[in-house]
Amino acid sequence: MTDLRTPLDPVSAAIADSGLVAILRAPTAGGFSVVADVLVSAGITALEVTLTSQGALAAIAALRRQLPPGAIIGAGTVLTPDDARAAVDAGASFLVSPVLDTLAGQSVPCYPGAYTPTEVYRAHLAGAPMVKLFPAGGLTPAYLKDLRGPLPHVRILPTGGINLDDITAWLTAGASAVGLGGPLVGDAATGGSLTALAARAKRAVDAVAQARS
Asked: What SUPFAM superfamilies would the database entry show (predicted)?
């Protein structure tokens, strides 16, 4: 079990410090390289490559070689132990799942998905350094604030349906970091504007700074 008084592992601490996880999801992972460069240049250094993207494992390995040492590359949509092992073998530094009970026994930090207080607490008891609150789009920052009333020691990573304008509210409500997919990455991984991506990334980084000022 971990709590807010327990020092985080270095990967989880870096994610919490940054306040953001960029979720890279597309039909294929071929565009992730240029997207990652833009995001890291803007200050978003935790990137989650979803395994539903064709070529995701190769992309994880390539991004580890491509990006500077401060960038953290993880795998998302990890649904089975085989998924988890393959992602770690490819170089993933953290694993994220939309569900519970798929990430036990891994050698890197794992953030299982949960929705209800019971699920969140189960994930915490299993040793998750952060719990992915998913899908957060159907919830509100007020839900997180209420959840953390009885569970102040659980670190929460809301993900799914969070827009750029929501970042500050979620962090202010007590989120350790937030996960952002489409509202941040948009169509940049499939040929969309990288200039627009850079502008969205700046908005996200500025929102974190505002929440923590």
From this structure: Aldolase (SSF51569)
Q: How far is the first Cα of the chain from the last one, in angstroms, to the nearest whole number?
A: 30
Q: Are strands 46-50 and 110-111 parallel, antiparallel or unpaired?
A: unpaired
Q: Which domains does the chain have, with CATH numbers?
A: 10-212 (3.20.20.70)
Residue 80: pLDDT band (50, 70, 90) is very high
Tokens at residue 21, please? 């996880």
Q: Active-site residue numbers?
A: 48, 132
**Which amino acid type is present at position 183?**
P
With a CB cutoff of 8 Å and minimum separation 6, the contacts of 143 are: none
* Distance, CA of 163 to chain centre: 14
Record the tokens describing residue 201, joined without a space: 């990334």
76 strand-pairing partners: 50
Number of H-type helices and E-type strands within the chain? 9, 9
- Please tell me the distance from the alpha carbon of residue 159 to that of residue 135, in angstroms, as a whole number: 6
> Residue 79: pLDDT above 60?
yes
Over 80: is that where the pLDDT of 206 sits? yes
Half-sphere exposure of 84 (CA within 13 A, CB side): 20
